[in-house]
């Protein structure tokens, strides 16, 4: 049985009921009729780190959301008008929970874009489920989390999609046979990323010489890199948060990891990290979901418009939130309703929608489907790994 659609029943109901949307067995099971037609603006909560270790006063997420909302509101295509209410998750699980509860119970939003990190998803998606509010996380990537709620979706690619593809592509060219891994043992994304890496590497016949871990407050990684160097790997895989990755690259090279042993980073390497790491980032490979130089629908216009408006090129986190706004607008327009159940049902039906990420679909559990990318840092800039 298709989890999202029961096609035969849909055709029958289309004759009886004028507008019907539904998701199958394990998602929104009720037949959904729009009960709140689109009139005026729809309130959308946006939750991301403004303060704390992941936060930034000049947030590319805020700028990208602003740009996308302007485009949606100025478009004549679907009549959707969005007004966002932004909440700071303070880079913590507790902050994200407070933000979700405030947006749901005080601001009465039907949709929230967020949270940003995988560690925040289990609790916030549970809150969305309890209150029947749509939650779309644009940047979390740990596998298996969208199934928490029938109202939950994610527009970033998950580790179980990105990692096997990345290993297939890189091993074919580099021919590595023995590797080391280094991961943040506290962060959910980093832990699950390392687990996915080890599984995919083992399945590919690659020997894992050593798996080293660290904690977020651990500034000195000399012990870990000393053991990694002694194991003599062909490549080193790193699973960490974006806030840590530049320092890890700098320490690794400073502690004597030779340039002919590539670092491979899963999803957390951004333009900002590369700039912060400087020469230490050169040659680093990343498995990722967006590329500023890609010729995907609207991508070059997005990069140009963002750069013109804000004076800097967008990064991957901003790009993901930008895409999520347009995907949400598509769901609202298709639902022709501000009712969360109708929006969730319409989102579930999105197939091959043109976005800056490429032709975009949701799978049966609300995770994103589009083509993953492998990039390499050359002369301080991202280039396609070929």
Provide the β-strand percentage band.
Answer: 15-25%
Order of strands across the main sheet? 7-6-8-9-10-14-15
Helix content: 25-40%
Most strands sheet: 7 strands, mixed
- N-to-C series of helices and strands: HEHEHEHEEHEHEHEHEHEHHHEEEEE
Spatial separation of the terminal alpha carbons: 39 Å
Mean of pLDDT? 90
Quickly give the structural class: alpha/beta
The number of helical segments is: 12
**How much is the radius of gyration in Å?**
21 Å
Low-confidence stretches: 1-26, 28-34
Mass-distribution shape: globular
How many strands?
Answer: 15
How does this structure look, described?
With 386 residues, this protein is of the alpha/beta class. Helix content is 39%, strand content 19%. It is built from twelve helices and 15 strands. The strands form three sheets. A seven-stranded mixed beta sheet has the order 7-6-8-9-10-14-15, with helices on both faces. Strands 2-1-3-4-5 form a five-stranded parallel beta sheet, with helices on both faces. A three-stranded antiparallel beta sheet has the order 11-12-13, covered by helices on one side. The radius of gyration is 21 Å and the shape is globular.
Keywords for this structure?
single chain; 386 residues; alpha/beta; seven-stranded mixed β-sheet; five-stranded parallel β-sheet; 12 helices
Secondary-structure map with pairings?
Layout (H helix, E strand, L loop, with lengths): L6 H10 L24 E8 L11 H15 L6 E8 L4 H13 L5 E3 L7 H11 L2 E4 L14 E3 L4 H16 L3 E7 L3 H16 L3 E8 L7 H10 L3 E5 L2 H13 L8 E4 L4 H7 L7 E4 L10 H12 L5 H20 L4 H9 L4 E3 L2 E5 L5 E2 L3 E6 L2 E4 L2
Parallel strand pairs: 1-2, 1-3, 3-4, 4-5, 6-7, 6-8, 8-9, 9-10
Antiparallel strand pairs: 10-14, 11-12, 12-13, 14-15
């Amino acid at each position: 049985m298709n989890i999202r659609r029961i096609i035969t029943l849909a055709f029958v109901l289309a004759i009886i009921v004028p507008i019907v949307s539904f998701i199958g067995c394990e998602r929104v099971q009720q037949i959904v009729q729009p009960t709140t037609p689109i009139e005026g603006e729809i309130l959308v909560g946006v939750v991301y780190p403004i303060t704390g270790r992941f936060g930034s006063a000049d947030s590319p997420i805020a700028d990208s959301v602003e740009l996308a909302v302007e485009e949606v509101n100025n478009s004549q295509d679907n009549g959707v008008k969005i007004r966002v209410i932004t909440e700071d998750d303070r880079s913590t699980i507790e902050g994200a929970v407070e933000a979700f509860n405030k947006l749901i119970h005080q601001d009465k939003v039907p949709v929230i874009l967020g949270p940003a990190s995988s560690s925040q998803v289990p609790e916030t998606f549970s809150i969305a489920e309890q209150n029947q509010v749509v939650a779309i996380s644009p940047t979390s990537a740990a596998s298996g989390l969208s199934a928490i709620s029938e109202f939950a979706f994610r527009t970033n690619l998950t580790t179980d999609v990105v990692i096997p593809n990345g290993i297939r592509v890189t091993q074919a060219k580099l021919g590595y046979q023995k590797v080391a891994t280094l991961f943040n043992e506290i962060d959910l994304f980093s832990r699950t990323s390392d687990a996915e890496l080890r599984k995919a590497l083992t399945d590919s016949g690659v020997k894992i010489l050593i798996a080293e871990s660290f904690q977020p407050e651990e500034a000195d990684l000399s012990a870990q890199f000393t053991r990694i160097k002694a194991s003599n790997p062909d490549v080193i895989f790193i699973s960490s948060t974006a806030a840590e990755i530049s320092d890890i690259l700098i320490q690794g090279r400073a502690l004597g990891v030779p340039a002919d042993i590539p670092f491979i980073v899963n999803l957390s390497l951004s333009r900002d990290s590369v700039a912060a790491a400087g020469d230490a980032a050169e040659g680093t490979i990343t498995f990722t979901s967006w590329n500023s130089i890609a010729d995907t629908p609207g991508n070059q216009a997005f990069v140009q418009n963002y750069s013109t408006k804000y004076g800097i090129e967008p990064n991957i986190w901003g790009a993901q939130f930008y895409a999520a706004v347009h995907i949400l607008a598509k769901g609202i327009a298709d639902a022709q309703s501000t009712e969360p159940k109708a929006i969730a049902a319409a989102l579930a039906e999105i197939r091959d929608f043109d976005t800056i990420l490429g032709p975009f679909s949701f799978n049966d559990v609300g995770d994103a489907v589009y083509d993953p990318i492998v990039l390499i840092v050359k002369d301080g800039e991202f280039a396609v790994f070929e």
